[in-house]
Amino acid sequence: MLPMTPKAKKRLFLTVVLLAGLFATLKLTYWVHLHQGKIEIQTQSEKQLKELISFLDGALSRYESIPHVLSTNPMLANVLNDQQNPDKVQELNLYLEEIQHVTEASDIYLIDALGIAIAASNWQQSFSFIGKDYSFRPYYTDAISGNLGRYYAVGTSSDKRGFYFSYPIYQQGGKGILGAIIVKVDISGIEQQSTSMAIAGQYQFLISDPEDIVFISSVDEWRLKSLTPLTQAKQYMLNASKRYAERPIGELLMKPPYESGSQAMLYQLQTGRDHEQYMDNHQLMAKAGWRVHILAPIKPLLSSLPALMLLSASIYLLLALSILFSAERRRNLQRMQLAQSLLEQRVEERTQDLQQANNQLKDTQDELIQAAKLTVIGSLSASINHELNQPLAAIRSYAQNTQTFLARNMQDKALDNIKIIIELTDRLADIVGQFKSFTRKSQGTDSATDIGRCIQQALTIVQPEIDKQGVELDVQLPNGSYQVWGDKVRLQQVFVNIMSNAIVAMQQSDKRRLIIRVTSEDKFCISIQDSGPGVRESQMEKIFEPYFTTNERHGLGLGLSISQRIIESMQGQINVANAEEGGAIFQIILPIYLLEEC
C-alpha cells in the first residue's frame, strides 16, 4: 500500500473535520428544535388546558345552584311528608318537568330519606326514575348528610352519561332532612362543545375520573377505557359502585405506561388505525373530581424536523465551503451561485409555508372568538325568553279584545287594537334585533331616551293586566323634556318587569294601587310603588340575585337580576324598600342627559 501524500492527508483531515462539524450541527439542530418545540407545545397546551377547564367549570356551574334554589320550594317538603297523595306527587312531577325544560337539564328528580325517587321530570318516559332506589349513589349520601353533592356516573335507568348535583330537602323549621333534590346534566352536550374546541385548537383531550377511567374524550375509542391496568380488584370496585352501569370497561393501550404524577410526558396512543405520539398535560378539577388531559400531537413537530435539519446542514456547508474554498472563489463561483440560488428558493418556500401557517393560526383564533360569543349567546337564552314573553302576552290579549270588538261591529276600537299590536310586534323585532346585532359585533343602539315616553310604552304593555286585576293607576310625570342616555328598548323592559312584578304582588291585596313618580335633582329618580305585602327583610339582599324568586309558580327569578344589569350598564342603580303604608317601592336612579322644564 502506497503511503499517503501530505495533500491526501490534508484532504482527509479536512473531510473528517467537515463531517464532524456537520454531525455536531445536525445534532444541535435536532436537540434545539425538539427542545424548543416541546416547550412551545407545552406552553400552548397549558393555555388550552386552562381554557378547556374554564369552559367545563362554566358549563357545570350553570346548574350547580339549581338544586339549592329548588330546595327552597315548600312543595318538595310537602310531597316528602305526604308521599301517598297522588295529586301532590303529580303536581310536583309537572313542576319538575317545567323546570327541566327551562334550565335545559337532562333530568330533575326528588328522592326520599331512603333514597327512593318519588317524583321526576321524566315521569312520562319509559325509563322514568320514579320508584328507583338511588341510595347507593354518593350524591345521595352527601345530600342526606346536609351537603351539596357532586358526582359523575352513567345512569342505571337511562344509560346516559351525566353529572349529578344534589341538595338536601329540610323539614320546615330546619329540624331534619326529608330527602334530596337531584339535577342531572347531560355530559354528551359538554363533550361535543369541548370536541369542537379541540378541533379548532388542533389537539385531542380526555377526562378521567378518580379511578383513571376515561369518560369524556374527543376520540371515541378512548372513551370508557382505563389509563391504568384494569386489575381484578379495580374491576370489582367499578362493578360495586355502579358508576358506569352495565357498560364494559377496557384498558387504553399506552406506551410507555401511564404516570399520573408526570407532566409533559410523551405517550403513543391509537387513533383509528394509526398510532400517534402525544404530549400529555393534565390538571385536576377539584370540585368535579375530574382530571383533564390535553394531548398535543407531536407529529407536526417531527414532520418539520427534516426540512429544518436540511436547512441547517445547507447553511453549515455553505459557511464551511466559503471558508475552505475562498481562494478558489473564481473557479467555483458559478457552482456556489447555483447552490445559493437553490438555498434561496428553499428559504422562500419555507417562508411561504410559515406565512400560510400564520394565516391558518389567525383563522383558528377567529373561530375560537366566534365560539366564545356563541357560548355567551347560549347563556342569554333565558333572558331572551323572559323579554319576549310579556309583549307576546300583551299581543294575545289585544288580539282577543279585537275579536270581541269585531264581533260587536266596533270597527274603530278594533283598528286601535290592531295599531297597538303592530307597535308591540315592532317592539319584538327590536328585541330580537338586539341579540342578532350582538352576533354581528354591533356597537349597540344607545341614544337619548325620553323617560316619560318609555314609561308610557311600558304601561301600554301591562295595561291589559292592570285592567284585568282592577289596579288603580297613579302616574305623575314632570312637564318638559327629560332624557337619559341608553337603550330605550332595554329601559322599557326594566319598567315592564317591575310593573308586572308589582301587579302579581298585589293579587291578594284588597286595595290595588300602582304609583309611578319621576323626580329630578342632580339625577333622575323613577319610583314605582305598589300596595302589596312588600318585601320581607330576609329577602332584601337576595331579591336581585339570579334564580331568586318569591313566587314559585312564575319563572325562575331572572327578571330583577336582568333589570339590575341593564340599569348598571346605563351608569345607574336600582334598589328596593318597603313603604310605611305598606307595599314595595322600587327606585331607579339614572344620570341626567337632558332636562328642559316647561
Helices and strands in order, then pairings?
Elements: H1 6-64, H2 66-71, H3 74-81, H4 86-103, E1 107-112, E2 117-120, H5 138-144, E3 149-154, E4 161-170, E5 177-186, H6 187-201, E6 204-208, E7 213-217, E8 225-226, H7 232-241, E9 250-251, E10 265-271, E11 274-285, E12 290-297, H8 299-303, H9 305-324, H10 329-379, H11 381-407, H12 411-439, E13 447-450, H13 451-469, E14 472-476, E15 481-486, H14 488-505, E16 513-520, E17 523-529, H15 559-569, E18 573-578, E19 584-591, E20 594-596
Parallel strand pairs: 8-9, 14-16
Antiparallel strand pairs: 1-2, 1-5, 3-4, 4-5, 6-7, 6-12, 7-8, 10-11, 11-12, 13-15, 15-20, 16-17, 17-19, 18-19
Mean pLDDT score: 83
Rg computed from alpha carbons, rounded to a whole number of angstroms: 35 Å
Q: Please tell me what the overall shape is.
A: flat
Sheet of most strands? 7 strands, mixed
Provide a compact summary of the structure.
The chain is an alpha+beta fold and 598 residues long. The protein is 51% helix and 21% strand.
Please describe what this structure looks like.
- The chain has 598 residues and is of the alpha+beta class.
- Helix content is 51%, strand content 21%.
- The strands form four sheets. It has a seven-stranded mixed beta sheet with strand order 9-8-7-6-12-11-10. Strands 2-1-5-4-3 form a five-stranded antiparallel beta sheet, with helices on both faces. A five-stranded mixed beta sheet has the order 14-16-17-19-18, covered by helices on one side.
- Helix 1 packs antiparallel against helix 9.
- The chain is flat, with a radius of gyration of 35 Å.
- It catalyses: ATP + protein L-histidine = ADP + protein N-phospho-L-histidine.
- One of its GO terms (molecular function) is ATP binding.
- It is found in: Cell membrane.
